[in-house]
Design a protein that fits this description.
Length: 141
């Protein structure tokens, strides 16, 4: 089993600009970048035109550390204190479930832990101290 903690920056529509800035300022390397428009379509939730060019997920490498980014979906904004979350990555869905269940005690579930197109177990929870965690399980291409 593996376990990693990665800073995850939630941006208000300027994730691409932030990535370019950190590439220059921190000599970072872009590892992955996908827009909402590049994601698989979901007929139950049609994608608004203004969302298509926004970053749904990106990762840069800063030295030996990764940093992840996403733009908020149109209509939602980041509140001060919520812009940086911590992504907990495991390769075991059972471990992800245990971590998610522990963090949700007296906290607030933002997205239930669930199977997604990119992860067999992914969810978002704000713990009782106001820290937001994304639980990501590796295992889907």
């Amino acid at each position: 089993m593996s376990l990693r903690l990665t800073p995850y920056l939630m941006m208000n529509g300027n994730a691409s600009e932030a990535i370019e800035f950190y590439e220059k300022a921190l000599n970072a390397k872009l590892l992955f970048k996908q827009t909402f428009g590049e994601m698989p379509e979901n007929p139950e939730f049609p994608l608004p035109e203004e969302a298509k060019g926004l970053v749904s997920h990106a990762m840069i490498q800063v030295g030996e550390t990764g940093m992840m980014f996403s733009d908020n979906f149109p209509g939602s904004t980041v509140q001060a204190g919520d812009q940086v979350t911590i992504c907990i990555t495991t390769d075991d869905a059972t471990q992800s479930t245990a971590i998610f269940e522990a963090l949700q005690q007296d906290g607030d579930v933002k997205m239930p832990l669930q199977d997604t197109f990119f992860s067999p177990a992914y969810g978002i929870v704000k713990d009782k101290f106001g820290v937001t965690f994304q639980i990501f399980t590796e295992g889907k291409e």
